[in-house]
Amino acid sequence: MKILTYPSLEDIIAAHKRIEPFIHHTPVLTSSAIDAIAGCKIFFKCENFQKVGAFKARGAANAVSKLNDEKKKAGVATHSSGNHAAALARAAKIAGIPAYIVMPDTAPEIKKKAVKGYGGIIIECKPTQADREATLERVVGETGAIFIPPYDHMDVIEGQATCALELLDKITDLDIIMAPVGGGGLLSGTALTAHYINPGLQVIAGEPEGADDAYQSFTAKKLMPMIRPNTIADGLLTSLGKINFQIIIEHVAEIITVDESQIIAAMRLIMERMKIIIEPSCAVPLAALLAHKHRFSGKNVGIILSGGNVDLSKLPF
């Protein structure tokens, strides 16, 4: 395996200063009702209140901000049907450069509307990974735009790592920190920050059983391809990135999988008890904790609530 140079703690701190004008310093909330159910003390880092409604605003802002003027001229590009699409469009708008967003023609209209609202230029394609990549390659070739991947990118990981930086600055006595895992940008960034600030702090991920390639890869110690993922947690359908995998193998203690009913129950619990809106992907770490309460009993646990972009007309309860 290729040896990679990861962002240092100094790099992550510098990234936070770099993006601070463009993001929210999101609050950390608690719920005594959920603590009583879980048997531990939980500190929820609320990235559902973040710009574009998700942590993705951090990585996109950092990656765009680090481009030099020459590279910025032609703009940026990506393929995404989710939160990264809106995050990159917004970061590009702030920088005054174009953003070319390849989106499958089946992407929800609400997602397309968000990208257009930030000035993103949408190029539609067929809803296959091969078609997304081929269309992106064509767009990059025609425009000269810089490709900013949603998670498998050092500057993106560095940006996502700032979320845990804020959490650990505010709550200094955590025993465990949890995040969901899809492509692995948030989890790998969280793991790096935790490792630097408190090497004894355990990092645990939650993942849907219906999209468990990270769990399989973690267990086998090699990247396992995603095959027909199927979960309500649509933000976690993506396959684990190569860079992200290497960081996760080195610095994550455990990945816990949960079924759909557990995800829905955790989502409902947060929305009912905390009176905040979260998307299904966001509920996965809490679902993992509740499924293994003995593992977390009496601990101080930080959970990153990754985003709040959910279609309220299609709630699963």
TrEMBL record:
<dbReference type="InterPro" id="IPR000634">
    <property type="entry name" value="Ser/Thr_deHydtase_PyrdxlP-BS"/>
</dbReference>
<comment type="similarity">
    <text>Belongs to the serine/threonine dehydratase family.</text>
</comment>
<protein>
    <submittedName>
        <fullName>Serine dehydratase</fullName>
    </submittedName>
</protein>
<dbReference type="GO" id="GO:0030378">
    <property type="term" value="F:serine racemase activity"/>
</dbReference>
<dbReference type="InterPro" id="IPR036052">
    <property type="entry name" value="TrpB-like_PALP_sf"/>
</dbReference>
<keyword id="KW-0460">Magnesium</keyword>
<keyword id="KW-0456">Lyase</keyword>
<dbReference type="GO" id="GO:0003941">
    <property type="term" value="F:L-serine ammonia-lyase activity"/>
</dbReference>
<dbReference type="GO" id="GO:0005524">
    <property type="term" value="F:ATP binding"/>
</dbReference>
<dbReference type="GO" id="GO:0030170">
    <property type="term" value="F:pyridoxal phosphate binding"/>
</dbReference>
<dbReference type="InterPro" id="IPR001926">
    <property type="entry name" value="TrpB-like_PALP"/>
</dbReference>
<dbReference type="Pfam" id="PF00291">
    <property type="entry name" value="PALP"/>
</dbReference>
<keyword id="KW-0663">Pyridoxal phosphate</keyword>
<dbReference type="GO" id="GO:0070179">
    <property type="term" value="P:D-serine biosynthetic process"/>
</dbReference>
<dbReference type="GO" id="GO:0018114">
    <property type="term" value="F:threonine racemase activity"/>
</dbReference>
<dbReference type="GO" id="GO:0000287">
    <property type="term" value="F:magnesium ion binding"/>
</dbReference>
<feature type="domain" description="Tryptophan synthase beta chain-like PALP">
    <location>
        <begin position="20"/>
        <end position="307"/>
    </location>
</feature>
